[in-house]
Structures are given as C-alpha cells and as structure tokens.
Specification:
By secondary structure, this protein is α/β, with parallel strands linked by helices. It has ten helices and eleven strands. The strands form three sheets. A seven-stranded mixed β-sheet has the order 3-5-6-4-7-8-9, sandwiched between helices. A two-stranded antiparallel sheet has the order 1-2. α8 links the parallel β8 and β9. The radius of gyration is 20 Å and the shape is globular. The N terminus and C terminus are likely disordered. The structure holds guanosine-5'-triphosphate (GTP) and magnesium ion. The site of magnesium ion has 4 residues, from α4. Its main location: Golgi. It is found in: Golgi apparatus membrane. Keywords: Golgi apparatus, GTP-binding, Hydrolase, Lipoprotein, Magnesium, Membrane, Metal-binding, Nucleotide-binding, Prenylation, Protein transport, Transport.
C-alpha cells in the first residue's frame, strides 16, 4: 500500500509504502490524521510527527538488511517473566521449529514481519518502552503520541532473519478512533498499564477488547505489561504484580513488569515477543505448506525427507495461552 500524505493545501508531504498494512482504508485514515492536524486538532507540532512517521515508513520498506546487531540475535528460547502468567513454559524452541531452522526450511518466514500493537491509557509509558528497546533512550518529558507511530526491529531468531513492526498507539481518547484503525492484522497485542496507577490496569480490559475486535479470535499473542517498575518496590510492587497476574490469567495473556527508565526487563520482554511470534510464524508456514502438498492415492500425504517425528510439543495447539 502507498500512503500519500498531503497538507490542507494539497502539498505533498511524503509518499510512503507501508509493509503489512494492506488496506486502503488505512490510507484514508492516515489522511484524516493529517487533515485533523492541519485544522488545528493537534497544533503545528503534530505536523512534524507526521513528517517523521512518513520518513520512517519510507525507510523501512524491507525488513531485511545485511546484518542484525548482536543483541538482536536469539539463539535459545527466551524465558517468561513469571510462570504464574505465561503463554508457554517451554524453554526451548518447538521441535518442528528447531528442525525447520536447522534445515533452513522456514519457507517465507525470513522475508516476513510480525505486527505488534501496543495499547493502553495515556501516560502509562508505551512510547517510552518502545523507545528504550528500539533506540535505547529514555525521555523524562511527556510527549503525547499523536494517532500512531511505529518502529521496525530486526532480529535473527534461531539463525533466521525475523522482523517486528511495532505500532505505538495514542492513549488519548481523541486519537482512539485513528489508532484503532491500526489494530487489525496484529500477531501480538501488548496492553500496557502503569504499576503506580491501578486504574490503568482496570482499563486494560477495554483496551484489549477493542484491539481483539479488529483481529481473528485466537490469532494474537497477548501480553499485559506493567510499566515504571523503578517507581515501586517491596510490598507495593508485589501487590500490584499479584493483581496484574490475576488479570493476565483472565485475559490469557503473559505478564511482564518493566522499566523504560532503567531498562529493566525491556530487552528480555521484546526478545520473548519476537521468539513467540517467530515460532508461530514458522509453525503456520509449515502447516500451510504441508496442507498444500499434493495427495496420492487414498489421501497419503507425500512426506518431506528428514521431517521430524511428531513430538508432544507438536501435538499442542499453537494458540496463545497454552503452557
Ligand atoms: N519513572 C519512570 N517514568 C516513566 C517510565 N516510562 C515512562 N515514564 C514517563 O511517563 C511519562 C509518559 O510516558 P509515555 O511513554 O510518553 O506515555 P504513553 O503511554 O506513550 O502516552 P500517550 O502517547 O499519550 O499514550 C513520561 O514522562 C515518561 O518519562 C518508567 O519506566 N519509569
Ligand atoms: Mg506515546
């Protein structure tokens, strides 16, 4: 898809392809953001944000590049934050996935990217979390996200290139209808709340419901993330986490506490997200290809040589929530 961004006078600001957002209604909505800015809903500073978004969309056409940085190389399966609320307890890659990666039999996975959407109340720290991970920076000053923003992050998982397209959405009510247009097609939904403000935890139900409405049931991995961990310690932290873990289990989400300020758990969290999304992509690709294989005689499936025997793991559904 190509987005042409123009100001109110029709001047072309940028033309930009957006990978994995294959719907022309997104282009229309993007123009709505721009028009809203020009008519003064967000002020002139918003225009700069849109220009920068357009610039980065333009520069992220392909998820693949020559190399990924060493700290984006994932060789063993990243661990959960707490076994009390995790999507799966395995500490190694799924048998079929390991075999596929070893034999470089991962189909188109290395060419694709997974869409991650981050939602939650305003001021909970969504942008800070993403910026800490993608740019290793932390800004004490609050700058509200206008509509949506995104980052691309390249990984190498089990030797295979893999990218996350991380969408940062605005928590402010007035931008909600714009941001929600970007929920669809998500492989991962991250619902963030502020550990020091338990009201924001209560609101995560609604954020999740809204994000899930735009996606196929069971298609997304769900994460509940408590932010600003540096501001809490001892019993207060334990109590907030216990409540969050309870809710995460209700939501069938994996729970993490993080701090964008100190960086605590940020890299581990996104590595976990990348590994789970990658694993599911490979499994889906294998499944797609095996169901596309021609049938012989009474329905015998032609098997690939060296295909590993079915393991306990492989019998499990790959849906989120399976521990
Ligand atoms: N102490 C501390 N402050 C944080 C942390 N993360 C974010 N903040 C602060 O919280 C404020 C809000 O952070 P943002 O990341 O802009 O919040 P947001 O969720 O993106 O807000 P919207 O874009 O309006 O939805 C900023 O002043 C940040 O500096 C953290 O881990 N620790
Ligand atoms: Mg923000």
């Amino acid at each position: 898809m190509v987005i042409a961004a123009r100001d109110a006078g029709g001047t072309l600001l940028a033309v930009s392809p957006i990978p994995d957002v294959p719907d022309s209604s997104d282009a229309r909505l993007f123009r709505v953001v721009l028009v809203a800015m020009v008519i003064g809903a967000t002020g002139p500073s918003g225009l700069g944000s849109v220009r920068s978004l357009c610039r980065r969309m333009r520069s992220s056409v392909m998820p693949l590049g020559p190399t990924v940085s060493q700290d984006r190389v994932i060789t063993s399966f990243p661990k959960w934050y707490t076994p009390a609320a995790c999507l799966q307890l395995r500490e190694h890659f799924h048998g079929q996935v390991s075999a596929a990666c070893q034999h470089r039999n991962t189909g188109t996975v290395g060419l694709k990217l997974s869409k991650v959407v981050v939602v939650g109340d305003l001021y909970v720290g969504k942008t800070s979390l993403i910026h800490r991970f993608c740019r290793n920076v932390f800004d004490r000053d609050y700058k509200a996200t206008i509509g949506v923003d995104f980052e691309m992050e390249r990984f190498e998982v089990a030797g295979i290139p893999f990218s996350l397209q991380i969408w940062d959405t605005a928590g402010q009510e007035k931008f909600k209808c714009i941001a929600s247009a970007y929920y669809r097609g998500a492989q991962v939904i991250i619902t963030a709340f502020d550990l020091t403000d338990m009201q924001t935890l209560e609101h995560t139900r609604q954020w999740l419901e809204d994000a899930l409405r735009e996606n196929e049931p069971g298609a997304c991995f769900l994460f509940l993330v408590g932010t600003k961990k540096d501001l809490l310690s001892g019993a207060a932290c334990e109590q907030a986490e216990a409540e969050a873990v309870r809710l995460a289990n209700e939501m069938q989400a994996e729970y993490w506490s993080v701090s964008a300020k100190t960086g605590e758990n940020v890299k581990a969290f996104f590595s976990r997200v990348a590994a789970l999304a990658f694993e599911r992509s490979v499994l889906q690709d294998l499944e797609r290809r095996s169901s596309a294989r021609p049938q012989v005689g009474d329905g015998d499936v032609i098997r690939m040589e060296g295909h590993p025997p079915e393991t306990q793991d492989s019998k499990r559904p790959s849906s989120p929530g399976c521990c």
